[in-house]
Amino acid sequence: MTLTVTISSASKSAVALEFPGKSASEVTIRDVKVALASKVKKLYVERQKLSQEGDKKALDDGLKLTEVGFDARTEQCRLSVKDLGPQIQWRTVFIVEYLGPILIHPLIYYLPRVFYGSEVQHSAVQSYVFAFVVLHFLKRELETLFVHRFSHATMPAKNIFKNSAHYHIFSGLLLAYDIYRPKYASASNFIVNTYRNNPQFLNACAAVWLFAELSNLSTHLTLRSLRPAGTGKRGIPYGYGFGLVSCPNYLFETVGWLVICVMTNSIAAWLFFVISTGQMAIWAAKKHRNYKKEFGKDYPRGRKAMIPFIF
């Protein structure tokens, strides 16, 4: 009897896939996706979401058919597929997201007459923030290319517009337009004889910002070491930053943006800080729950999600 997997779809007739000479304990969900893609060209592997019939939960690629409702009497397994639509690489999404602020900030910083109708003699705080923002997103681009490993290869292509808007609008256009305007110029009353023009204060802020950025990078390197290339597996993270929270990368990024808020007291900076910190808190809570669910009693009990001793 030949091993057969029947794939049903809400919009199309069922497709029968045969695996001659193989047992259910050998065939994985990934193998089924590859076989389905060879029969239905539109449904390339990354576009498929396979579930057990009557269940909407996506099945992990590494699961064997014996783990997903295989009927040993008939040598058959019934699964359902959902078309996730056109997909785009997560790495590409990140590159596009971070490229926005890298391009927008220099445009507004170096071409103030175009945006404000007059030249702006930049103050030290404007120059510091310009350097912080551009260096931050250049770092993010380099991490995307050389550090990050992704548990999922792709995402729906349409989401790139929503994801990019967060960075292009809030940390790009709004932040740059607010901070590089004449209000923050070197001769402005908002700057002259205030803490925003104090070299010691600015240097202290730069030191805290650099600490946050390097700490963030360190945690990303730790997370990379826990995920073998080409897999979605992960281990329990330990080491610098992970003693008190599950997601110190989000904690350190929050500190970096808080520095810019304190330096400028910019409405746009505070708006981006609140939105981005809220989003990171949601991601941190989800990752924290997943860690505890995946590792159970082995996961350190004292850890919080993102903010030590609090959350």
Structure overview:
With 311 residues, the protein is an alpha+beta fold. It has two domains: 3-85, Ubiquitin-like (UB roll); 88-298, no CATH class. It contains eight helices and six strands, in the order E-E-H-E-E-E-H-H-H-E-H-H-H-H. It has helices spanning 29-39, 90-110, 112-116, 124-146, 159-179, 199-226, 248-264, 267-295; strands spanning 3-9, 15-19, 48-52, 76-83, 87-89, 154-156. The strands form two sheets. It has a four-stranded mixed sheet with strand order 2-1-4-3, with helices on one face. The radius of gyration is 25 Å and the shape is elongated. The mean pLDDT is 93. The chain crosses the membrane at residues 257-285. Keywords: Endoplasmic reticulum, Fatty acid biosynthesis, Fatty acid metabolism, Lipid biosynthesis, Lipid metabolism, Membrane, NADP, Oxidoreductase, Transmembrane, Transmembrane helix. Its EC number is 1.3.1.93.
Kindly list the characteristics that best describe this protein:
311 residues; alpha+beta; Ubiquitin-like (UB roll); 2 domains; 4-stranded mixed β-sheet; two-stranded antiparallel sheet; SRD5A/TECR; lipid biosynthesis; very-long-chain enoyl-CoA reductase activity; transmembrane helix; endoplasmic reticulum
Tell me the strand order in the biggest sheet: 2-1-4-3
Report the helical percentage. 40-55%
Question: What structural class is derived from the secondary structure elements?
Answer: alpha+beta
Span between termini: 55 Å
Q: How many β strands by DSSP?
A: 6
Mean of all residue-level pLDDT scores: 93
**Uncertain residue ranges:** none
| Rg on CA atoms, Å | 25 Å
Number of domains: 2
Which range does the strand content fall in? 5-15%
Number of helices: 8
Shape: elongated
